[in-house]
Structure formats: C-alpha cells, structure tokens
C-alpha cells in the first residue's frame, strides 16, 4: 500500500511541475462537453430524437451521448495514461531503476492507475457539474450510491485493460500509434455515442468491454432507462474477474520477453 | 536465510539476436567476487560489461549459466536479490528531475522497502554524506551533473544494500566530482562500510587506483583476471617513454630505432604523441631527439612504468578506444 501511495504522490508532484497540463485538466471538461451539445442540437434540432429512441430506448439523444462521453473518460485514461506511464519512465531514464527495485511492477502500475483514476474523477465530476448547470440534471443520493458502485466495478476491469496497454508500450516502442489504435477500437465497439445495437458486429464485440455494462447501468440510473441491476453487476463483475488476471499475465509475459530481448529501457 | 554477500557467475551467457545477426554480449563468463571485495571489470565500450551488470541486477534474463547473489539464485528469487543489491547506472538520468532530492529519496525509500520510521533519518544521513543537505528542496533539474551523480549514489544506497553494482561511475564527470566519486567508493563504501562492489569502467587508472582484483573483458569474454600488481608483473621488464612533439611525424621515421619493442604514434591537431616500450629509456630518448630534430619540436618527455592499459593491450591486442 505504501508503494501505491508513494507512486501516487510522485505522479501528482510531477504533474504540479507542468502548469500547462494542469490548465488542460481544468479547461478540457468544458471543451469536451460543449461540442457534443452543439453537435446534438445541429443534428436533431433539440434534445430529443424519435428515430434514436427506437434504437436506444430513449429519445433523449444529447443526455445519452453525454453520459457515454463523460464516463468513457475512465476507459481512455486507463488505456492512454496507464499505457503511457511506463513510456514516461523510459523517457525520464528511471524505468530500469524502478524495475530493479524489490517490488512487483504490478504495484507500481496500480499506483499509476490510481493517479489516473483520481484525475479522471476530477474530470468527470467537472463535466457532471456542467450538465447540472446546463441541463438541470438532478443527481440525488439514491442515484449516487449505485453510480459509485458501477464506477468501482468499471475501474477494476479497466485496470486490467491498463495493464495490457502498459505491457504493449514495453513491447512496442512506438507506443503512441498503438495506443491510439487500441483506444479507437474500444471507442468503436463501446456504446459511447451510439447504441451498439446499430450493427451486429459492434453488438457482438461490445459484450467483452467493461464500459458497455457500466454505461447500461449509468444510463439506467441517470436517465431512468430500464436495466437489470443484478444482471448488469454480475456481467461486469465476471468481466473484471477475467480481465484483471489476463492483464497481469500479459504484463508479466511481456516484461519477461523484453528482459530476454534486452529492450526493456529502449526509448 | 543466507548472509553471504558475494557474487558468483557460472558460465553466464547472454546473446542478443536481431534477424540473422547474433551477438554474444556475455560469452560463457565465470567468476566469483568475494564478500567485501572491490572488484573491477575493465574493457572497451561494447565489451559486455553493462550487459553483465544488467544480468546480475535481474534487468536482463540470461540465456544460460547461473548467477548467485548473496546466496540467492537470480532466476529463482529475483526479489531477494534486488533487496541485496544497489545499482548505480545511467548517471544523472536515473532520477526524477521535476522532484527534489528529498522527494526522490523518499520515493525510492518506499520502493526499496526502507522501514517508514527509518526513512527520514536515512535520507538526512545520505544527503549529509553527499553534501546535498542544502539542496534537499531544490528540483533535481537545478543541480549540477556532479550533484546529480551524488544524488544517484544516495539513491543507490537508500536501502543500505550489502552489494553494489556500479557502472562507469565517473563517466562524464568533471575532474573534481570524478575524484570525489573515486574517493567515496574507496574509503566510504569499500573500506568503512565493507560493501561488496562490482565496478565497471573503461578508465584503467580508475581500476588501478580502486580495485583489489580486476578482470579484463573483451567481446563478451573474460580475457584475464588478477590483481593490478600481478598484472603489471606479467609485462616485460620495460619502461614506457612518452614524447610529445609539435609537428606531425611519419611512422616510417622510427623504423630504424633499435631500443624500442613497440611504437604507438598518434597525430592530432598538429601534435605527435609517441609512446614506446624500452628497457633503455635514456638511449632511446637520445635517438628519438636526433630523429625528430629537423621535423618537429620536442615539447615534453615522460618515462613511466607500464599501466593496466598497457597490460590490456598486451593481453588482448585491442585498445580501450576501440
């Protein structure tokens, strides 16, 4: 636990040294949300669309998309930031020194994951506040508790995804392109901006992505859409139980491979 | 649990493959470094020294052979090995430049398992030892190269490891910090704290000054292993005559010299550097002065005993610059 906390502290202290990045984290929730609202208004002329309602089970297009866009922050943060965190250590020149410490690398990744989760939560809360102000979205305590429950289940699964992303950056040194690809594949097959029922392939692949179930639950809670609490929880939990060990196994295998090939700290 | 503090390598092999090419960076290396010994691994760039250190520190997985560190096999118990060792590599790039020395050491203390109650006193002690107490709250990026290297050394020592792997400790340092580093390794780490130290360097003078035993490494293999004094004894009983001249001289000029067994001539920026082995330096000097009189001006003359570098050249036929 001490290692995870120290990792978290280190990452935040390094962030404080980059004021532009802090400014980005403050401003970007607004920049991310506003275009979605404008896009919705331009496309359907208001908040609701009956054509959309036939597919998604709700005609409230903009709130539907906003919830997807806001909570997908966690998934992209897991892929992009956790994956890139080891790349940053390579850049600093410290990767070999943290990997020669008597600690399992997975704990370091957990610390980095926690750092990204906190930043993402700040980002998400800021966006929700914007939605409350603009749309009069009401969030009561009865909504917050199940929301947090599903977010927790989502985060656990996404840590597994993050471990895989981190492993890929150890293996492939041109990590940016690979992570972007990974990110966009997840984007394509998750119900972020559209229901995955829009195409049979997206529907089939989306069942393996934790964000799918989290968004079903979160839209159910926030928009009052029909969903099965226990079934959705169970699916998400089962996915977590599969993805986290898979992520750890993949990371350990790739770490071993790079140590054999001698490419661990190549930049 | 074993309390041994030695390093044993048996038939260690590390091969790097790239498509059809295969480089045997460490080729069947066996050696034992005793508890409390300051052992030097010498060789030119690309000899395999750093690869060897990375294998011992578990950053590379060897393709064959055995490594036992402090009684632990690196394959079976890498975490126990990592607790026993401190690794100094990479110089100033091994720290977080956006953090202060205090923050860096606090982070690495947690990472290397220093008990929480001892962390502050250990950090204070190390900062004071390195004369960095006043810089404790400055960002590392504001420190000089020498200070960064001192801080890297403090980071290496944070968990008080009994075994140290030190890779090229004075590379890129100015003479003042290089001297500090050599002095610190010898008096503090070796003599006072009795650490077991494996030091790699391509500065022969450094190994000569610091190490109890040295191994010459070239093309992945240990070519010879002995004490510096014993190595020098294997050289023919000759002295080295070094002459620096203003003017570029031709090698053919020296072919008629009878008093020298070898000649190294280096021409650079209008100067010639002549280095010859001889058992009669006075006669040879007189002959050289006669030969170069009309072509160059003799600027300096030095008669020395063979160094480890001469031994290395004698044994391997290669030079450290290769």
Number of helices of chain B: 10
Strand content of chain B: 25-35%
What structural class do helix, strand and pairing data of chain B support?
A: alpha/beta
Low-confidence stretches of chain B: none
Radius of gyration of chain A: 19 Å
Summarize the main sheet of chain A: none
Number of strands of chain B: 14
Mean model confidence by pLDDT of chain A? 82
Summarize the biggest pleated sheet of chain B: 6 strands, mixed
For the termini of chain A, the CA-CA separation is 30 Å
Number of domains of chain B: 2
| Strand order across the largest sheet of chain B | 6-7-8-3-9-10
Task: Tell me the number of helical segments of chain A per DSSP (H or I, 4 or more residues long).
Answer: 11
So what's the overall shape of chain A? globular
- How many DSSP-defined strands of chain A? 0
Shape of chain B: globular
Fraction of residues in helix of chain B: 25-40%
CATH superfamily of the largest domain in chain B: P-loop containing nucleotide triphosphate hydrolases
Features:
heterodimer, A: 267 residues, mainly alpha, globular, B: 322 residues, alpha/beta, Rossmann fold, Alpha-Beta Plaits, 2 domains, 6-stranded mixed beta sheet, 4-stranded antiparallel beta sheet, 10 helices, 33% helix, 30% strand
Structure, briefly:
Chain A is mainly alpha-helical and 267 residues long. Chain A has helices at residues 2-16, 19-44, 50-56, 61-92, 95-99, 105-135, 141-171, 175-189, 200-206, 210-223, 229-261. In chain B, the strands form three sheets. A six-stranded mixed β-sheet of chain B has the order 6-7-8-3-9-10, sandwiched between helices.
Describe the structure.
The complex is a heterodimer of chains A (267) and B (322). With 267 residues, chain A is mostly helical. Chain A is 81% helix and 0% strand. Chain A is built from eleven helices and no strands. Chain A is globular. Chain A starts with a helix and ends in a 6-residue tail after the last helix. The model of chain A has no long low-confidence stretch (mean pLDDT 82). Chain B is of the alpha/beta class and 322 residues long. Chain B has two domains: 7-232, P-loop containing nucleotide triphosphate hydrolases (Rossmann fold); 236-305, Alpha-Beta Plaits (2-Layer Sandwich), CATH 3.30.70. Helices cover 33% and strands 30% of the residues of chain B. Chain B is globular. The A-B interface holds A 2-3, 5-7, 9-10, 13-14, 17-18, 92-94, 96-104, 256, 259-262, 264-265 and B 14, 16, 25, 51, 54, 57-61, 63, 79-80, 82-83, 85, 87, 89-90, 93-99, 103, 106-108, 110-113, 116, 139, 155.
């Amino acid at each position: 636990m001490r290692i995870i906390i120290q990792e978290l502290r280190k990452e935040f202290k390094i962030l404080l040294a980059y004021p532009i990045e802090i400014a980005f984290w403050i401003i970007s929730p607004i920049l991310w949300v506003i275009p979605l609202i404008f896009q919705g208004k331009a496309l359907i002329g208001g908040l609701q669309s009956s054509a959309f309602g036939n597919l998604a089970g709700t005609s409230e297009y903009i709130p539907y998309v906003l919830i997807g866009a806001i909570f997908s922050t966690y998934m992209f943060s897991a892929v992009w930031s956790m994956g890139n965190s080891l790349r940053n250590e390579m850049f600093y020149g410290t990767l070999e020194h943290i990997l020669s410490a008597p600690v399992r690398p997975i704990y370091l990744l957990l610390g980095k994951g926690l750092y990204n989760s906190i930043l993402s939560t700040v980002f998400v809360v800021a966006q929700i506040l914007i939605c409350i102000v603009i749309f009069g979205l009401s969030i009561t305590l009865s909504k917050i508790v199940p929301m947090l429950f599903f977010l927790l289940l989502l985060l656990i699964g996404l840590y597994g995804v993050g471990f895989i992303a981190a492993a890929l950056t150890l293996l492939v040194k041109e990590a940016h392109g690979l992570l972007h690809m990974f990110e966009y594949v997840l984007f394509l097959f998750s119900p972020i901006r559209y229901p995955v029922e829009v195409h049979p392939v997206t529907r089939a692949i989306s069942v393996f992505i934790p964000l799918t179930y989290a968004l079903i639950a979160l839209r159910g809670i926030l928009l009052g859409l029909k969903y099965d609490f226990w079934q959705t929880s169970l699916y998400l939990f089962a996915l977590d139980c599969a993805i986290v060990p898979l992520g750890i196994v993949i990371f350990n295998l790739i770490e071993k491979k790079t140590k054999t090939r001698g490419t661990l700290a190549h930049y | 649990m074993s309390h041994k503090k030695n390093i044993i390598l048996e038939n260690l092999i590390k091969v790097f493959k790239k498509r059809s090419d295969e480089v045997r960076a460490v080729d069947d290396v066996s050696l034992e470094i005793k508890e409390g010994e300051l052992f030097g691994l010498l060789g030119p760039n690309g000899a395999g020294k750093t690869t060897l250190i990375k294998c011992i520190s578990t950053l590379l997985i060897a393709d064959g052979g055995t490594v036992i560190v402090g009684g632990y096999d690196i394959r079976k118990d890498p975490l126990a090995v990592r607790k026993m060792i401190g690794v100094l590599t990479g110089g100033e790039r091994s720290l977080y430049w956006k953090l202060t020395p205090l923050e860096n050491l606090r982070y690495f203390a947690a990472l290397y398992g220093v008990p929480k109650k001892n962390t502050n006193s250990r950090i204070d002690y190390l900062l004071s030892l390195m004369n960095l107490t006043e810089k404790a709250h400055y960002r590392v990026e504001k420190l000089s190269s020498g200070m960064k290297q001192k801080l890297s050394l403090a980071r290496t020592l944070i968990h008080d490891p009994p075994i140290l792997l030190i890779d090229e400790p004075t590379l890129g340092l100015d003479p003042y910090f290089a001297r500090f580093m050599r002095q610190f390794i010898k008096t503090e780490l070796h003599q006072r704290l009795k650490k077991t130290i494996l030091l790699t360097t391509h500065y022969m003078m450094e190994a000569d000054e610091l190490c109890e035993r040295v191994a010459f490494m070239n093309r992945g293999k240990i070519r010879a292993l002995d004490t510096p004094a014993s190595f020098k004894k294997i050289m023919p009983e000759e002295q080295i005559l070094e002459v620096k001249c203003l003017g570029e001289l031709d090698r053919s000029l020296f072919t008629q010299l009878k008093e020298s067994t070898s000649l190294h001539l280096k021409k650079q920026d209008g100067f010639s550097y002549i280095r010859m082995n001889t058992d009669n330096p006075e006669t040879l000097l007189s002959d050289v002065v006669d030969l170069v009189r009309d072509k160059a001006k003799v600027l300096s003359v030095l008669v020395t005993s063979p160094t480890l570098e001469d031994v290395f050249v004698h044994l391997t036929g290669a030079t450290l610059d290769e």
